[in-house]
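Researcher: Good morning. I'm working through a list of sequences from a screen, and I'd like to move beyond sequence-only analysis. For each chain I'm collecting a predicted structure so we can compare shapes side by side. This is the next one on the list. No need for commentary yet; just the structure.
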Amino acid sequence: QVQLVESGGGSVQAGGSLRLSCAASGRVGSTDCMGWFRQAPGKQRERVASIDNGRTLYADSVKGRFTITRDTTRNALYLQMDNLRPEDTAMYYCAAANGCRSTFWEYTYRGQGTQVTVST
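Model: Good morning. Structure tokens for this chain:
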């Protein structure tokens, strides 16, 4: 089993930055793919970014503004979010699995989320 706990969310003005963290505990060695997802009110949960053995993928809406990294020595996943926009407001979740998946619910391990609010 792997437990995931997100932190680092908060409120920020447009143009600001936040760094999300996801602390993993348990059998993290079985998870070669980790990702960040988000869900805004009234919208579907969408993948923001994923990292799989060092290879990264980003949603078009965050390319050039967000950076996903993974520190295997600390069993942690990060999402550096710069130049935030009001449309980035959402609950952000991390997820992990042995192999990247298309949707959040297909990931084997899933966190409870951290709220990000971006104001104008």
